[in-house]
Amino acid sequence: MPFAPTSIPSPDISSFALGPLTIHFYALCIITGIIVAVLLTNNRLTKRGAEPWVVVDIALIAVPLAIIVARIYHVVTHWDFYFGEGRNPLTALYIWEGGIAIYGALIGGAIGAWLGCRWTGIRFWTFADALAPGLLLAQAIGRFGNWFNQELYGLPTDLPWGLEIDYPNPAWPAGLPEGTLFHPTFLYEMLWNLLGVFVLLWAGHRLRLQWGRLFGLYLIWYSAGRVVWESIRIDPSDIILGLRTNVWAAILGVILGVVIMAVQKRRHPGYEPSPYRPGREWTPEGAVQSQDEIDYVDVSDPSTDVADEAEATSTAATK
After folding, report:
1. pLDDT tens digits, residue range 200-221?
2. Please, which residues bridge with residue 21 across strands?
3. Whether residues 306 and 161 fall in one domain
4. Are residues 315 and 223 in the same domain?
5. InterPro entries annotated for this entry (predicted)?
6. Are residues 222 and 101 in the same domain?
7. Burial level of 8, CB count in 10 A (0-12/13-18/19+)?
8. Same domain as 310, residue 253
9. Which residue, 132, 207, 235, 248, is most buried by CB atoms nearer than 10 A?
């Protein structure tokens, strides 16, 4: 590969041997992202009053389902990659070679998280809000793995940060000469996601977005950026009404995020009283609650829905 001082080189290797095992950098990025997301979510949930590390119980269900559905989503939207003429259908199982779709991961992860929350007693929307910044951070780390796999790059460019891709490459666009540089869309998305982490952390603290509204903001932020990056990518993808399938998915993500924020704001104008569903509250070991404490709710505390209901009742009585 010719040296280009004003470009971003791609790594020469994408894996390394460890005894009889082959370790892929892509997989390491995905695993690192999952670990970081679990740690950040645990910190946020614990601050809300949840049992420390309850997030692990939820992740045991959510993470496997997220990966499975993410792979299924990718295979379905890239059917000819695996089941076209001359293709080996077994490669649909080779997840270590890359190819998982974040929107599939969101669908599978949401199902798994809902099941995990039912198991642990955590409110689903509380968990989703706690997860949102960590999820975006995990996606940023995961995108770094695309660099090692030399995949998901964009249109040709002569910008100083153009990405070098090995030639020949199975995904190399026909007709382009060797030495062509491409938009590093993986890098654009990674930087957008990292910026989004700070936006979500700020919004969650400053605006007190609860009842799933912070997760709704996550969907809007990530999906809005994804519409842009997806529009300049040149890897093969199914086209529906002139748009790539992931562009449609991103548009739906923005709409869903707006709907969640609007509906949850209307349904829950107050703050969440607890990260747990009623009757499933967790009490720290050694702490003792009297029946009076259990029965008593301070309606002057704006963090409870009871406060909002009491205020509404009082207002109605004085009219």
Report:
1. 999 999 999 999 999 999 999 9
2. 18
3. no
4. no
5. Lgt (IPR001640)
6. yes
7. middle
8. no
9. 132
Which amino acids are annotated as binding site, given as ranges? 143
Residue 205 near residue 241, CB atoms below 8 Å: no
What are 267's two structure tokens? 């349904």
Contacts 24+ apart (CB under 8 A), 13-21: 13/148, 14/148, 14/149, 14/150
Q: For 268-315, what is each residue's pLDDT tens digit?
A: 988 888 999 988 888 776 454 444 334 333 333 333 443 443 333 343
Instruction: Please answer whether residues 198 and 218 qualify as being in contact, where contact means their C-beta atoms are separated by less than 8 angstroms.
Output: no
Q: Which pLDDT belongs to residue 269?
A: 85
| Statement to judge: residues 26 and 137 lie in one domain | yes
* Distances, alpha carbon 136 to alpha carbons 62, 130, 131, 202, 267, in Å: 16, 11, 9, 14, 26
Contact status, residue 233 vs residue 153, Cβ threshold 8 Å? yes
Question: Which residues face 16 on adjacent strands?
Answer: 23
- 29: how many CB neighbours lie within 10 A of its CB? 21
Residue 104 to residue 70: CA distance in whole angstroms? 4
Q: What is the pTM of this model?
A: 0.82
Peptide bond into 168 cis (omega under 30): yes
Cβ proximity of 26 and 96 under 8 Å: yes
